[in-house]
Amino acid sequence: MSTSSSPLEAVQAEQTGGSVRIGALVPLTRPGWVEAGRHLLAGLELAVRDVNDAGGIGGRPLELVVRDTAADPGKAAAAVEELARLGVVALAGEYHSVVARAVADRADALGLPFLCSSAVLDALTEQPTQWVARLAPPQSDGWRVYADFLLSTGHSRIAVTTQPSVYWASGVGVLQDHLTPRGGTVIELDTRALAPAAVCDALVDHRATALLLLVGHPEPAVSIVRSVRRDRRLDEILIGAPAGQPEFAAWADLLGVDGAGIPFLRYLPERLGPLGARVEAALRARLAEAPSFVAFEGYDTITVLAEALRSHGADRARVATSWPRVAVDGTRGRIRFSRKNGVSVWQWLGAPIQVVDRDPAAPDRFRVRHAV
To answer: Pairing mode, if any, of strands 354-359 and 264-266?
Structure first.
């Protein structure tokens, strides 16, 4: 739910034992990835409901104050400023890495705890910070797993279609650093200069055996997939999407069988435990479709924050100091935070990582191709 109130009202609510507020940042309008935002918010809201059904935070209800980031770093930074004035005790959410980086920078500057749900960019802040923690694996971890999958399936000449973005550039760097020492080659194809048909020609010219889509969804990703699928010269090429575009139902709706057999990264275990299974059923009912891993990330975000608030109190500084002390069962495993070289925030290092695709025989069904 989305609320608005004055800073005075926020202070009065705190003084009278009102709700404990968490600011939720999610992409709910274009050009944000709206489907990802909807799943993330569903997970956040379901967890808030469950926390409140269990008595809230010391008898006080937990409340989400939702703001749409629309994949806009400037809009997200302004929302952080507003939420800080409204008296939220912590921030949660965000899917887009460049937006999460803007949120993390402002949260760090303001002394406002931020638990990032889904964004994976390694360097969420310029300098190490005590104020920010993250549930999703760092991009370097996940994309190295993806590179290992490519090598294990016989692919060493890898073409990547790219667009200008810190996130995409970081992904290319991870792939190059991991594949090149192992005999792999990474060929960059700039979609600003190449139309989908020209991408197909370049794949033939470079003798690529795999094409990775490091581009936006739905376009130009959908047009590239259609062109490659219809080019008989490329019948044997593997199309991949490490960023996870095929996870969501819109991908299958747009591409049907053409969108199947495209491996992507997903952060779920091969089997959910009892909590995960219960949450999966509730999310499915709430979304009227199978929940993505992003919805589970949203649920786990609130689970962690609720534990921090119960054990350390509804105080910003205490929440921030709780990151290395939190230990709680989430939907996808036991969650603890620690430091990792090259990552500037507190990081959950136990997140499951899978390479998954949609089954060509039944595009609504997923196949696990590789897992760690």
So the answer is: antiparallel
